[in-house]
Design brief:
Elements: H1 9-19, H2 25-34, H3 39-45, E1 73-78, H4 93-99, E2 107-109, E3 115-117, E4 120-125, E5 131-136, H5 150-161, H6 168-172, E6 181-185, E7 188-192, H7 200-203, E8 230-236, E9 240-245, E10 264-269, H8 272-280, E11 286-287, H9 292-298, E12 304-319, H10 329-336, H11 341-349, E13 353-355, H12 378-387, E14 394-401, H13 406-419, E15 422-429, H14 431-437, E16 443-448, H15 454-461, H16 481-491, H17 496-513, E17 516-517, E18 520-529, E19 532-533, E20 549-550
Parallel strand pairs: 1-10, 1-11, 14-15, 14-16
Antiparallel strand pairs: 2-3, 4-5, 5-7, 6-7, 8-9, 9-10, 12-16, 12-17, 12-18, 13-18, 19-20
Helix pairs in contact: 1-2, 10-12, 11-13, 16-17
Length: 552
């Protein structure tokens, strides 16, 4: 929507809410763009200095303090092992980062948690948020020379929704049936949703949602056809993966020529400790998903620049409510009272995070409802355990993995919980072993990634299917009909104030009888050689490298 006449009617309401101080400028930008308003237009409507007459036909890089320099190689320390040759089956961030250098998405959520059209030129939604019209940009080509059109998008949607594919996109898009996808013309697709869903643009940037060529036959490595800025040059599993600049990419840079700026990207397979050593020695330029100890060690290395972003990433203490003792809400709540959140944050993450309540809604989410941070209360925990029939306390096993501060959280919680009547046996396993059993352990700590919209993770991890059974990502097996009804209502509510009211109750339900504890939301970092510009921290640790350039 690039004109006032075609804007969703709710945009005018949002603008009045902004003018009267009911929502922040970021909330306005987030909701206006969600409803299909082009980002520059949303900036203008928010009074940020642009007018509709200045809209570019393609997104361009904002002016930089110095002229960009083309060329150079960016070397990244990472895992290099694609768990699947089908992008729709990806489940690891490092794999998605590598695939997204070749393939792209219909939308893009930036470092400020605002979602923009990407391969799409725009989207429109009906007043009831059930009918979405997606309009593709014209002139975008795959790296095999074929033009992107509606058939490729429809092929991709059907591939994601096919049960045989085994994609997490199927659960995510449970509100869309294949027969409700309409091809309007070569560059327009219309989706008729079963239920209202404000988060569709965000879902289309979920990491398995790479838009595939209609001729895709299941092997993206053997036939790496995509619309992205780089092309696959070499892949040695467990060693490295190399991408070369693609000439003829559709986006235009600040210097008026096509992106990307870099000639080459190299991902080198290094363990987390090896990545730190390689950064210190200048052998790599940046690293995937820095840990807290990496942040501590590397921020003082000469020439290294660190950028930080708040996120909705969390180490979730999760309890299987279909098994004793966690089927008793008193035991669940007793365990939650054993969190000294600030201490857990300080010990496990050097204080680099935002304290949390025991609901999977974060301050960075648009409709977050601020609540008091629960206090550490071991006496209350003991009282609840006595009430539940455990006057002498309770022995439990806490299972988690050992790659991102989980051991520190687990062991700090073990000491804190002893005062509250819990004797915890901490079981630390390798990441692969944990993910084999993450839905099965009675008590665990699971790392959940950032989702840009408040309803997304709630609908993914805490609901049931049509038969009332926990969905595939519902590791706690918690099914609460009031909660589910509230989430479904929130998914159809684009008014921020109205949705925040729903979120207040959602958060209360999760804290009163829910299956999780969350001590804090993690900050994330980009740690890089300072000669590389436009390399910013992203809340989902996505490598968006099309505009990165190397200072001469």
């Amino acid at each position: 929507m690039n004109s006032r006449s075609s804007q969703h009617p709710a945009v005018a309401i949002l603008q009045q809410d902004l003018l009267h101080g009911k929502i922040t400028r970021r909330e306005f930008l987030r909701m206006a763009t969600l409803l299909g308003t082009a980002f520059p237009t949303a900036l203008a409507l928010a009074g940020c200095g642009l007018t509709e007459g200045t809209l570019p036909t393609l997104p361009t890089t904002p002016p930089t303090p110095e002229p960009v320099t083309r060329g150079g190689t960016l070397t990244i320390g990472s895992d290099v092992l694609l768990e699947s040759s089908d992008p729709a089956q990806l489940s690891w961030g490092h794999s998605a980062n590598q695939v997204r250098q070749i393939g792209e998405y219909l939308t893009l959520t930036d470092a400020d948690n605002i979602t923009h059209p990407w391969l799409l030129e725009s989207w429109e939604t009906s007043a009831d948020v059930k009918v979405w019209t997606l309009r593709l940009r014209r002139g975008i080509t795959f790296n095999n020379g074929d033009e992107l059109d509606a058939d490729d998008v429809i092929f991709s949607l059907n591939h994601w929704l096919n049960p045989a594919t085994g994609s997490s996109m199927r659960d995510l898009l449970a509100f869309l049936q294949p027969h409700n996808i309409e091809r309007v013309d070569n560059h327009t697709i219309r989706l008729y949703l079963d239920t209202p869903q404000i988060g569709l643009p965000e879902y289309l940037f979920h990491y398995p949602a790479v838009v595939l060529h209609r001729g895709f036959e299941g092997d993206f490595i053997g036939s790496p056809v995509g619309t992205g800025p780089f092309m696959l040059a070499e892949y040695e599993p467990g060693e490295h993966i190399i991408f070369n600049r693609r000439f003829g990419y559709w986006r235009i840079g600040a210097d008026g020529a096509t992106l990307p700026y870099l000639d080459r990207i190299v991902y080198r397979n290094l363990t987390p400790d090896e990545r730190v050593e390689a950064m210190q020695a200048g052998l790599i330029d940046t690293l995937y998903r820095p840990r807290t100890e990496d942040w501590q060690k590397l921020q003082t290395v000469p020439g290294v620049v660190v950028s930080t972003v708040s996120t909705a990433q969390a180490l979730v203490i999760r309890m299987r409510v279909d098994r004793p003792p966690w089927n008793d809400v008193r035991v669940r709540n007793a365990f939650k009272f054993c969190q000294d959140r600030q201490r857990i944050l300080d010990v496990s993450f050097y204080g680099q995070g935002d304290l949390a309540i025991d609901a999977h809604v974060a301050p960075v989410h648009p409709a977050y409802c601020e609540k008091p941070i629960p206090q550490y209360d071991p006496a209350r925990s003991r009282a609840l355990l006595r009430e539940a029939g455990y006057p002498e306390g309770l022995n439990v096993t806490l299972t988690t993995k050992n790659d991102y501060s989980e051991p520190e959280v687990a062991n700090t919680l073990r000491m804190l919980a002893a005062e509250g009547g819990f004797i915890i046996d901490v079981n630390i396993v390798e990441p692969a072993r944990y993910w084999e059993q993450w839905r099965e352990v009675d008590l665990g700590i699971t790392a959940w990634e950032h989702r840009p919209l408040d309803t997304m993770v709630l609908a993914l991890g805490y609901v049931a299917d049509a038969q009332g059974q926990p969905t595939s990502w519902n590791e706690t097996h918690w099914v609460d009909q009031e909660f589910i009804d509230l989430v479904r209502q929130a998914e159809g509510t684009f008014d921020v104030a109205q949705r925040r009211a729903l979120m207040c109750r959602i958060e209360d339900v999760m804290q009163e009888r829910g299956p999780i504890g969350i001590s804090y939301w993690r900050k994330m970092w980009a740690i890089a050689n300072g000669r590389f510009k436009n390399l910013h921290a992203h809340p989902t640790t996505y490598d968006l490298l099309h505009e990165v350039w190397k200072q001469a």
